[in-house]
Write a structure and sequence with these properties.
GO terms for molecular function: ADP-heptose-lipopolysaccharide heptosyltransferase activity. By secondary structure, this protein is α/β, with parallel strands linked by helices. 39% of the residues lie in helices and 14% in strands. Strand 7, helix 10 and strand 8 form a beta-alpha-beta unit. The protein is globular, with a radius of gyration of 23 Å.
Length: 403
């Protein structure tokens, strides 16, 4: 019944948007304005938003006169709000990405409302930067935008003017760049230069001077001077199935501090994760600094200062890559080919439970929404041994921090 309702509602959207689509087709035949208006849509949370940042510099370089607007969820706005390539930032509480319940009709009510607002802004190009986000494709269609770029995936494809074939198991940033390149071609401009690689299109997020000064104060109060190597562990993540064992973090932290006695450890997380940080910190000597009340920029300043960052598959690890800091990260249900580090391969080590856990053949399954009572049946991350983490951390510290 729910599937049939969606089909009916999407058909209603298609019919309602036909007059605008016809007008948009005529507009696409007109000469491109001197300052083309470009809309980028990305509904995701912190990590995915960090992996979107390379397209902003690329667009600004290829279309320096463009007026670039980015529409993001309020939960990730801080990642791109300061980016110099963006002229306007719009926030939208995208359906399906809010961590609250919603009615079956709410996505369509919001779709109509936001499309009406966008129609008044007369965009020349819109790019749906999430490959499976049908709502974003429908939004571009209802807004009457003449060039609408996305992947040819149902049910989004009928709403697009430029639908790219979707090739699975590519990196998330690769997809962002491929769509952006197609958007440039839709405008009659040259495509992005290949290859789509981190050295050509790096992640970008720059902490401010004030954020770096805040960090310096925090470190000084903890007795950490500018010559001390800082190790950061960010153990939390949005999906419980991706968590490692608290006791394993404790043992690995102690092993590293014993190996590098002049280093200091910082544990980071959200306010909701403070209890987990305390549990990990209890057995670590010397006691680590706990920071769970930080802005994104303050966290980035810490990650930039760090010699090494360890964690599971989470947004802050991508933020660390944007700071040029080596990382060690644990993967289980998510695919590192898609969500792994977008940075120099020799500076980042991914440890997958598939390598260390032959009893978990289903990974990467891509599923994160396990109920609490199901988690014990999916221990793919929890079974990664401490030794693997410690060896990877030592490899990076010896290579980049112990010359």
């Amino acid at each position: 019944m729910k599937h049939m309702l969606r089909i009916a509602l999407l058909e209603a959207v298609r019919v309602a948007g036909l007059p605008g689509a016809i007008a948009a087709r005529a507009k696409a035949q007109q000469p491109l304005p001197e300052r083309p208006r470009i809309l980028l849509i990305r509904p995701d949370h912190l990590g995915d938003m960090v992996m979107t940042t390379p397209v902003l510099d690329a667009l600004r370089a290829y279309v320096p006169t463009a007026q670039i607007t980015m529409m993001v969820g309020p939960w990730a706005a801080d990642i791109v709000a300061r980016h110099p390539a963006i002229d306007h930032l719009r926030t939208c509480a995208f359906p399906g990405f809010r961590r609250t319940a919603q009615s079956a009709l709410e996505p369509y009510t919001l779709l109509r409302q936001i499309a009406h607002e966008l129609r008044e802004e007369h965009y020349d190009l819109a790019i749906n930067l999430r490959n499976d986000f049908w709502w974003g494709a429908a939004l571009m269609y209802l807004a009457g935008i003449p060039r609408r770029v996305g992947y040819a995936l149902a049910p989004a494809e009928p709403f697009l003017t430029h639908a790219l074939p979707f090739r699975p198991h590519r990196h998330s940033t690769f997809y962002n760049l491929e769509l952006t390149s197609a958007g440039l071609e839709a405008l009659g401009l040259p495509a992005l230069e290949q290859p789509f690689a981190p050295e050509h299109y790096p992640l970008v997020f720059t902490p401010t001077t004030d954020e770096q000064c805040w960090l310096q104060t925090q470190l000084e109060q903890a007795g950490i001077d500018e010559k001390t190597e800082v190790l950061v562990i960010h153990p939390g993540t949005g999906g419980a199935v991706k968590l490692w064992r608290n006791a394993a973090w404790t043992r690995s932290a102690n092993a590293l501090l014993n190996r590098y006695p002049t280093a200091r450890l910082v544990l980071t997380g959200s306010p909701a994760e403070h209890e987990m940080l305390e549990a990990i910190a209890q057995g670590i000597e010397p006691r680590p600094l706990l920071l769970s009340q930080m802005t994104i920029g303050q966290l980035a300043a810490l990650l930039k200062r760090a010699s090494l960052v360890l964690g599971v598959d989470n947004g802050p690890l991508h933020l660390a890559v944007a700071q040029g800091t080596p990382t060690v990260r644990l993967f289980g249900p998510t695919d590192p080919a898609i969500f792994g580090p977008w940075g120099p391969a020799n500076r980042h080590i991914v440890i997958t439970s598939q390598e260390k856990c032959p009893s978990c053949p289903c990974i990467p399954c891509g599923r994160l929404d396990f109920r609490p009572d199901e988690l014990d049946e999916h221990p793919c991350v929890k079974r990664i041994p401490e030794q693997a983490i410690e060896e990877a951390a030592c490899t990076l510290l010896n290579t980049f921090c112990r010359q």
